[in-house]
Specification:
With 142 residues, the chain is an alpha+beta fold. It has helices at 2-21, 51-61, 109-114; strands at 32-37, 43-48, 70-76, 89-90, 96-98, 119-120, 123-125, 128-129, 135-140.
C-alpha cells in the first residue's frame, strides 16, 4: 500500500513541477529588447519576455526605480540575431534583476567574451552571469 501511495505522490509532484518549471512560451510580439552596459562601456542586448520584468526594465530605463538595477541570467554560448557582436547571450527565461549577488558570477561583458570557453566551470559556475556593474541604458525595437 505504501508503495502505491509513494508512486502516486511522486507522480503528483512531478506533474506539479512541470507546471511550474515549464511556463508557456512567450510570443515574439511580447518580447522587449534592452541595451545594457557596464564599467567597460561596452553594450549588450538583453531580450525579455516576462511582462513584469519588461515593466521593471522600462522603469529602470525611465528612472522610475533604482531597485534591482543589475542584470543576472544564464549564458547561452552562441550568437543571436539581436546581439550579433557577442558570441553569447542570456537565456531569456533566466534573466532577472538584482541589488546584490554572489561574487563568483561577476564579470564584465568583454571578459565573458574573452573567457567564454571557460564559462560554466570555475569561471561562472552553472553559466550564471551577474555583472555587478551592469545597468540598462535604453530599450530598442526589434
Amino acid at each position: 500500500m505504501r508503495s502505491i501511495l509513494t508512486k502516486i505522490l511522486t507522480a503528483l509532484i512531478a506533474v506539479a513541477a512541470l507546471g511550474v518549471a515549464a511556463p508557456a512560451p512567450a510570443q515574439a510580439a511580447d518580447a522587449a529588447y534592452f541595451v545594457m552596459t557596464d564599467i567597460t562601456r561596452e553594450e549588450f542586448v538583453v531580450k525579455l519576455t516576462d511582462p513584469a520584468k519588461i515593466q521593471h526594465a522600462r522603469d529602470l530605463v525611465n528612472g522610475e526605480t533604482v531597485d534591482r538595477p543589475h542584470v543576472v541570467g544564464r549564458i547561452l554560448k552562441r550568437q543571436t540575431d539581436y546581439n550579433p557582436r557577442w558570441s553569447y547571450h542570456l537565456n531569456t527565461d533566466t534573466v532577472d534583476f538584482f541589488d546584490q549577488f554572489i561574487e563568483v558570477c561577476d564579470a564584465t561583458i568583454p571578459y565573458v567574451e574573452d573567457h567564454l570557453d571557460e564559462a560554466g566551470g570555475a569561471f561562472l559556475p552553472g553559466l550564471v552571469w551577474c555583472g555587478w556593474t551592469t545597468r540598462l541604458v535604453r530599450e530598442i525595437r526589434p
